[in-house]
Specification:
Radius of gyration: 19 Å
Structural class: alpha+beta
Number of strands: 13
Helix content: 10-25%
Number of helices: 8
Largest sheet: 11 strands, mixed
Shape: globular
Length: 281
């Protein structure tokens, strides 16, 4: 669809796992905040014996508003169904600060790595970072459009959307003072191939209203008038396989072409439409 092809796609957020044996713990308090659940990264299924406590450490940079990295220590099943400990890092493109709008891509990934290292929580090599396996990846694309045009797009999407009875599926519209947009399904949905999460929303409203301190610090003066964003979440390894992607390492995802990423957004959209297509006026 032409309305999502105005700017280059990139990644907005990533969960990335690295074998713990490749990681040096710099902040010793992290060793007391390990997540002890087990996760199958192929299916996303979480297994717990009920006795262990799940904990996460979020590092918020005091002098860099809006920059948050989540550190999780998990025992995870490999594809061979062997359980080994991993560090999982959860980060967003806000970590790029003034280059936020570029998103996470091959040009900005070293900035992401350097910022994580500068937080002083853990240490690992750039190569190990690039080899890390990714889940819960948001592909984003910004585009410009007039509000009336977007309203018409939302009307068509709603008319053509698949109907669901489950509470976590279906169309959601929002038109609040701090945001304006449209989404399919809940982000936490457990059947991403059948009902994938996709959201379209106004960056002109959302960014200064919901991330005001970050916006004032790093993006003051950027022209975001009539800018909208479409985000599609690729949840896990099985979801990536449905797009023909077997290798979910960060380095491989960064090598995806713009055309392929555009196709993944479009395929996610079509998966939520009746007959996998949008019928016009």
């Amino acid at each position: 669809m032409d309305f999502i092809r105005n700017f280059s796609p990139s990644f907005d957020s990533v969960n990335l796992r690295i074998p713990l044996e490749k990681v040096k713990i710099v902040n010793p308090s992290l060793e007391h905040t390990w997540i002890t659940q087990k996760e199958n990264t192929g299916t996303g299924e979480v297994i717990s014996d009920g006795a262990s406590e799940t904990r996460t450490y979020k590092h918020k940079s005091e002098d860099k508003p809006g920059i948050v990295v989540e550190y999780r220590f998990k025992d995870q099943f490999t594809k061979e169904q062997v359980t080994i400990p991993f560090l999982t890092l959860c980060f967003t493109s806000k970590i790029l600060q003034g280059r936020y709008q570029e998103g996470i891509n091959s040009d900005t990934i070293e900035l992401v790595y350097n910022e994580i290292m500068n937080q002083g929580q853990v240490s690992f090599g750039l190569d190990d970072f690039l080899k890390g396996e990714c889940t819960n990846v948001d592909i984003k694309k910004d585009f410009k459009a007039e509000k009336e045009s977007i309203k018409e797009v939302f009307r068509l999407l709603k008319r053509n959307a698949k109907t669901h009875v489950q509470a976590d599926r279906g169309v959601r519209e929002f038109g609040k003072r701090d945001n304006f947009g449209f989404q399919f399904n809940d982000r936490t949905i457990q059947s991403p191939k059948e009902a994938p999460y996709l959201k379209i929303y106004s960056k002109e409203l959302e960014l200064p209203k919901r991330s005001g301190e970050f916006h004032r610090e790093y993006l003051e003066g950027f022209d975001i008038r009539d800018v909208y964003r479409v985000e599609a979440t690729i949840k896990n390894k099985q979801h990536f396989k449905s797009f023909g992607i077997e290798d979910t390492s960060l380095v491989n995802l960064l090598a995806l072409s713009e055309d392929r990423m555009n196709e993944m957004i479009s395929e996610t959209l079509k998966a939520n439409l009746q007959g996998n297509r949008l019928i016009g006026k």
